[in-house]
Specification:
homodimer; alpha/beta; DNA-binding; 14 helices; 6-stranded mixed beta sheet
Chain lengths: ~325, ~325
DNA sequence: TATAGTCATCGAAGCGGTTCGACGATGAAT
DNA sequence: ATTCATCGTCGAACCGCTTCGATGACTATA
């Protein structure tokens, strides 16, 4: 393995000169730069990332922390992972992905050992135990998901309240007066998945303001419970003319369930939901829905994190709720 | 940030002594070990991963390389990612996940800069361009997926040929004499996704041996093509009594398509497929199928990689095809 | 013509660990 | 009573790179 010393010797200059040629932090004559370039190619030299990290205290790596809960639909998570990874790479960072079941431990481990320059926390809950670990860390973090206390933290999330209002407005405008709402499983609420109740509460509040009926329900996360609960919910409200589905696992199987019941959309029932474009494409979901935009979310989180990593202290904390976009797909009437 | 020097000073010993106490590579008296432990806790010391990596030439990080192709179904990939990540962590390794579109470049980048001790390549194709980069690297690699030339490489894959034979046998045993086979999209074949034609060829060969009819077809990867092609394929073979689906995207939407056609499983059509248990659970797939076992595959790949990383040279190259397991779910008659 | 900047380069120190060889103090074996 | 190992510890060197301050050679300024 060629080191910077080998390159220096080959080019007949000092190591520091090679370093400066590499970084461009000091002027180097054209001629020397040329000799150095040739030496680098001849020896196949690449900077040793560890040594550079040690010298600069910058690893150029971002930690990505995720946890898989039984009550979540794994395919949805992938969208966020990809978005974070891609935008990090665009900014020159690599991703250390940690799926430890011990979330706080993982945060502490990778930050205190200086493996990363910053972390992105996915799927943050109301009282996320990882936040204490993050606050204790030297490195900054960006959250996707809304904790109770956002002080000193950069958080990014969809504006679920607004999403709910948009969907209720849409249905109300079409004349619907009795709506069934399918939320995530009760577990998610208990665990503090704020997105769940932010969406539900806003929907209920909006419906109340219009004086229309809305029936909130919890969904299930595992088959065969999903189908069973879906049927039970629809059975219980035969008068309802519209369904709002805020539940990834349920929405994936909804088409076949509706079919089994002989329900035609939108003739018999209007259906709206909340999912990302990619997700909808994977599962052939033809429903009018609000985009969850994992790509925008992931990108913003990473960009902000990088900004904070480069000017520590200077960047004020932000809580950014990206505005939902309604995509009409003709599943409502 | 406390360094090993701070700990040494606090404990009144030399830095090397602290290091030996940490690693246990030389005997340390109980009393000094105690003083060192106290100092470590008092100062909240953690070894700096970069410095250690520099000194030992071991990063304790494994690179995980993946690429998302348009013709693949993203949710299936997640299973592998998780399996690799989990088993790596169990062995003390972290995962550097790289989703670069430039696969070979990514391999070279992370290996030549010594960011990782080894790499896992997911979804390896017949003539995978990443393999040259891997061969040129100092670090060993483990592949998931089968390349044309496996020399000097450790490859892990499901025995797709055997899987196909098991499914054909199963159907033949039940009396089926005309079978429709739905393969991955043509793109996958062209790109060199060996699993696609290994499965297809084995199925065709087996059917020929039994003297029964089998009709191979390419599937699609994106809606609405999936549904359209599924219907076209079924329309074309009205006599067929069984369907083998080797196509993640199609299998996810198959239930609703069959329903739309008024086809009852297994009364009107027997259906078998190939997917992992988790995948089936996510999508409510009730089909008799061969397990793809991403968890076993990921685990074996990582374990072998780690073994090779610790005794370089000593470990002979392996090509391991894990044996498929048939799970009867009652979708055949 | 003396003076002050630039420009290009070098040497040395430092980042935070690990590891090798040495060394004094013990205890066991001869 | 010597000799030999073993035990526990230390100092120094090294891993590969960055960066600070210094230096000599030029060029522009007064």
């Amino acid at each position: 393995m060629a080191t910077i010393g080998d390159v220096a010797r080959e080019a007949g200059v000092s190591r520091s000169t090679v370093s400066y040629a590499l970084s461009g932090k000091r002027p180097i004559s054209l001629e020397t730069r040329d000799r150095i370039d040739r030496a680098i190619h001849k020896l196949g030299f690449t900077v040793n990332a560890g040594a550079r990290a040690l010298a600069t205290s910058e690893t150029m790596v971002i930690g990505l922390l995720l946890q898989f809960h039984d009550d979540e639909f794994p395919p949805a998570m992938l969208q966020y992972i990809l978005a974070v990874s891609t935008s990090a790479r665009e900014l020159g960072y690599d991703i250390l992905m940690v799926t430890d079941s011990d979330g706080p431990g993982a945060v502490t481990r990778i930050t205190s050992s200086n493996m990363v320059d910053g972390v992105v926390l996915l799927d943050v809950t109301h009282e996320d135990p990882r936040l204490d670990a993050l606050r204790a860390a030297r490195q900054p973090g960006a959250l996707v998901g809304l904790p109770r206390n956002t002080e000193e933290l950069d958080v990014f999330d969809l504006d679920f309240g607004e999403a709910a209002r948009m969907l209720v407005d849409h249905l109300y405008g079409l004349g619907h007066r009795e709506i069934v709402l399918l939320s995530p499983p009760r577990h998610v609420f208990d665990r503090g998945g704020a997105y769940a109740w932010r969406f539900r509460d806003a929907a209920v509040e909006r419906a109340a303001r219009y004086g229309i009926q809305i029936h909130p329900n919890y969904g299930e996360s595992q088959q065969p419970g999903i189908t069973r609960s879906l049927n039970a919910i629809l059975d219980a409200r035969p008068q309802a003319t519209a369904l709002i589905v805020h539940n990834d696992a349920s929405i994936a199987v909804l088409p076949s369930v509706l079919h089994d019941r002989g329900v035609q959309v939108p003739r018999d029932l209007s259906v709206v939901s909340l999912y990302s474009q990619d997700f909808g494409r994977s599962f052939l979901l033809p429903y009018t829905a609000v985009e969850t935009s994992p790509d925008r979310l992931g990108r913003e989180a990473v960009q902000h994190l990088v900004r904070r990593m480069s000017n520590p202290g200077d960047v004020p904390a932000v809580a950014k709720f990206i505005e939902p976009v309604l995509t009409i797909r003709g599943s409502t009437a």
